[in-house]
Write a structure and sequence with these properties.
Blueprint lengths: L5 E10 L2 E11 L4 E5 L6 H9 L6 E6 L2 E4 H8 L3 E4 L10 H6 L9 H14 L15 H13 L5 E5 L7 H16 L3 E5 L12 E6 L2 E3 L1
Parallel strand pairs: 3-8, 3-9, 6-7, 7-8
Antiparallel strand pairs: 1-2, 1-4, 4-5, 9-10
Helix pairs in contact: 5-6
This protein binds adenosine-5'-triphosphate and magnesium ion.
The site of magnesium ion (MG) has 3 residues, from helix 1.
Length: 217
């Protein structure tokens, strides 16, 4: 593997005196996918949220460009490159098209470029046929793909997916798996939590399991 994009080291996290994460390290490489498994309450979502800057650890260092910094001092500047997708896809009321276009409003693209980008992303995800439908009326599996596409269009360097295939039928899982493969081959670093390892064969490059707050291979 090449140089890591980001390295998180020594993550410690407790809730109400109970330690959830103990000295957890995570190395994120471009085009690499890490699968995290562990029982309910093990700390999977907590770890993703700390990486995304949505939850504060008691202790953590972040290394990038050959230097180490405390989590607190750099998380703000790096989190624009990191997208966290919740297990329950959060979609706005409105069409699939407007949902996918949402994040582009904050970029420097002009109207025409934004439109082209949205059309391309909808094609990429196989969502062209439902582009003008109200996103909230779609099935869960399709809603999850809309959420992926909304993330994909922003081209984050790191994508954190929390149980993306929960409650999906086999076909939706296959489609989701295809999208994940494409995201990976475009160079994104992906961290995914799942209780269903069988869907990540050939997709995950590394697999870690939570055991008493630590990550074990
Ligand atoms: N904001 C919070 N306040 C207090 N406790 C929390 C908070 N967030 C998580 N916890 C606790 O931390 C532990 C780890 O939770 P987390 O959601 O990270 O587990 P998980 O591995 O994602 O579980 P699941 O498989 O159910 O999604 C749990 O015991 C949970 O109750
Ligand atoms: Mg969770």
């Amino acid at each position: 593997m090449n140089e890591p994009l980001l390295v998180f080291r020594g993550i410690e996290k407790s809730f109400a005196g109970s330690q959830i994460l103990r000295n957890v390290d995570l190395l994120l490489y471009p085009g690499n996918c890490i699968l995290l498994s562990g029982k309910n309450g093990a700390g999977k979502s907590t770890l993703l949220k700390i990486i995304a800057g949505l939850e504060t650890p008691e202790q953590a260092e972040i290394e990038y460009s050959g230097e180490s910094h405390s989590w607190k001092t750099v998380i703000r500047s790096i989190r624009k490159n990191i997208i966290y997708l919740h297990q329950q896809p959060f979609l706005f009321s409105g069409t699939v098209l407007s949902n996918v276009a949402y994040g582009l409003r904050f970029t420097s693209l002009n109207r025409k470029q934004r439109r082209e980008s949205v059309i391309e992303a909808l094609e990429w995800a196989g969502l062209t046929d439902v582009a003008t439908q109200d996103a909230k009326t779609l099935s869960r599996g399709v809603q999850q793909r809309v959420a992926f596409t909304r993330a994909w269009i922003l081209k984050p360097k790191v994508l954190l997916l929390d149980e993306p295939m929960a409650n999906m039928d086999h076909e939706s899982r296959e489609q989701t798996s295809l999208l994940l493969r494409r995201m990976k081959s475009s160079g994104m670093s992906i961290v995914v939590t799942s209780h269903m390892q069988q869907y990540y064969d050939g997709l995950a490059d590394q697999h870690f399991h939570f055991k008493r707050g630590r990550l074990v291979p």
